Amino acid sequence: MSQPVLTFTDRGIYCPAADVFIDPWKPVERALVTHGHADHARPGMGRYLVTEGAAPVMRHRLGDIDVETVAYGETRRIGGANVSYHPAGHVPGSAQIRIEVAGEVWVVSGDYKVEDDGLSEAFAPVPCHAFITECTFGLPVFRWDDQRTVAAQVDDWWRANAAQGKATILGAYALGKAQRLLSAVDASIGPILTHGAVENTNEVLRAQGINLPDTIRVTPETNPKDYPGALVLATPSALGTPWARRFGPASTGFASGWMALRGVRRRRAADRGFVMSDHADWEGLNAAIAGTGAERVFVTHGYTSIFRRWLEGQGYDAAIVETRYEGESLDDAEDTA
Amino acid sequence: MKRFVRLFAELDQTTRTNAKVDALARYFQDAPEPDRLWTIALLSGRRPKRTVQAGRLREWAAERAGLPLWLFEESYPIVGDLAETIALILPDARRDSDLSLSDWIDVVRGLGAMAEADRKAAILDAWDRLPARARFVFNKLITGGFRMGVSQKLMTRALSRATGIEEPDLAHRLMGEWRPETTSFDALIRAPDPSAELSKPYPFYLAYQLDDGPWKLDTPPADWAAERKWDGIRGQLVLRGGERFLWSRGEELMTDRFPELASLADFAPPGTVIDGEVLAWRGDTPMSFNALQKRIGRKTVPKKLLEEAPVIVQAYDLLEDRGEDIRALPFAERRARLDALVADLPDEAPLKASPLLSFETWDELAAIRAGSRAHNAEGVMLKRRDAPYRDGRRKGDWWKWKVDPLVIDAVMIYAQQGHGRRANLFTDFTFAVWDGLPGEGALVPFTKAYSGLTDAEFRKITHWVRRNTLERYGPVRQVAPEHVFEIAFEGIQESPRHKSGVALRFPRMARWRHDKPPAEANTLTDLKEMLDAHG
After folding, report:
1. Residue B467 is nearest to which of A266, A324, A330, comparing CB atoms?
2. Each residue of B111-156: pLDDT tens digit?
3. ipTM
4. Nearest-angstrom CA–CA distance, B507 and A55
5. What number of other Cβ atoms are within 10 A of residue A274's Cβ?
6. Is B422–A141 a contact, with Cβ atoms under 8 angstroms apart?
């Protein structure tokens, strides 16, 4: 093999055969983008190739960009490479990108989770020779309960707060987690109010045909007293601000994989932490990697050095790649979108 | 255990003080008495004796989870808590258990007498019978360090509500050497016998920091007494029945560490309890904290050290006078009795009264405070002359007014991820000053610091560290030397163990100097000058 299918540059993951970058962090002529979160989809690229499901959010966030869309499983010939997109189960429209050059197949996972959340297209492993994977939660202490269990915890909490006349303020990513919660909770408990950043994303997703329960956008005119017992879906950074204080007596919570750690939750000083992540947990990462049949694994972001060592012990040829992806943050740039 | 685990969850799932007190008060009303007693014990830092080595627990947990030990060891510092790490990695429990908190504590206590193989079997059995949160609580009972987000003050308030006994009475009953294994809820709380425990100290009264100085206090300087805030170990000296007991603020008995105080049991009248500062002392002045530091942590003291750093108690207050609890008397009167007591002691007695400072205006006191470091003091204390000796940290009657810290501007050169509360952030940093010309010489590391930034600043620097890593050494990242921080600290001393030749006391990040380029950071020469002036 004269040249690897993908190389790792200071602008992003590069495919020489196709002369394209995948999820680049510096401006390039042509970008293949896995999904719309800000650490993967950045402004300033000449052209973008994304799934049909990811395109509306990217247009909404990045403005007037040159976007071409592709269906899951559809193969495009770009230069000397066959390129196709496959569901990553992370957020609606998110993809793993498969690149085949002269019979050699590499797959870039982007961000992914293996549980079917009923909203995003479900993750499916893509057989490959080399797999470039995230490992945000690449430690055995991270094990997620299934979504139904976590949703029931949120429902119980919401119901109890409503019974005590308190608002329920839940911090979650504006793109992905918020909609996943919306579709998983029992919307009959009470009204659901949304922070502007959450509602903007809701509107985009509804317009592309995704079903979400009814929500009410919080505006400066909104009087919380009109919505007793409400669930307020906010961005994580909105908690503890004057914006959140308008709801009066309230119980606060975050939904994030980081909530598995008691210390992280206590630092954020929320009442409740719900362990729900749009990233794979320890078992999910291992199952996903095994499912690809890959011999070589590159880990991009998360607990990379520990996870690499673990993979080597499992017989993989594993290496760390420095990227600018951030995985799941409680303090993400998503909030400004 | 289910009731206790539910209490633990309730306390853990709210940040509101009232909700915590409510949950605790309910528990203290409903739970079986042995469980109540153990809960009080755990919340006041008394845990069952350790019966299993932490190292064994780690091995057994990794083995049970089917993971290599190294992976457990790497995960542990990130979680930041051994009990939690074990609870998280173990496979789900397959059975159930109806044992109570005190039943499980009996299990833990019984482990000590077992052979290693039986001990392991008992632990694995327990892990398999407890769901995740209960397993965490069980692990905490074994490993200790149980923090439930409830201060002793809140616990006392809840207990007061459940029993109808006044808070200060309860606080006093809960002090001292009692053990849950040897007392009962009745004997400790409902019908205490004060004479039963000669050693029992009073709750310490703690002061808040006076951030903006005394000028805004609502009463004139004449209403206040002031003394130096000595830089030693705060302690309570209990002299009763011909015996002496020295308690630290953390309710640790330190009597045997300071044998030179033995003569006080003979000199002072029985029934004397003194609040004061343990200080290393030479001639008629305190030595620096560095001298005392050599004595801390030593349970037995070699003769040479006794001669190099002899200690005395510098008394602040008298709490018990000839067997009478005088905490309700005004400070001025307690102080007069203290002075009379000390005046009766021979000169060589290792007990002095901390001198009151003479001042008429706040500006005069400010000038005295400015000279604190020269007296090996941390600042001044203000006490309202008519105030009783209260319990716990309370505002109003006592204030501490510490001197401003020493500061130096330094360049960040290494960063490491935090653990526990701060697992996903870079929070542990190493700082350097210039050796030679600023901006041209080498950067010499001289201190680490972990605290002082806001959460938002920690998030910002984390973001930056990820992008500006030059090199990785295991968990440590060398970062581009671009950011200057003002490091504040309380003291500086010579240290041959450090490359820079100095060690700082309580270093923390006071400010992120966005306005300063690295070339404007301080130098090793500056640091050495500070050592000469304050070391």
Report:
1. A324
2. 999 999 999 999 999 999 999 889 999 999 998 777 777 888 899 9
3. 0.93
4. 50
5. 22
6. no
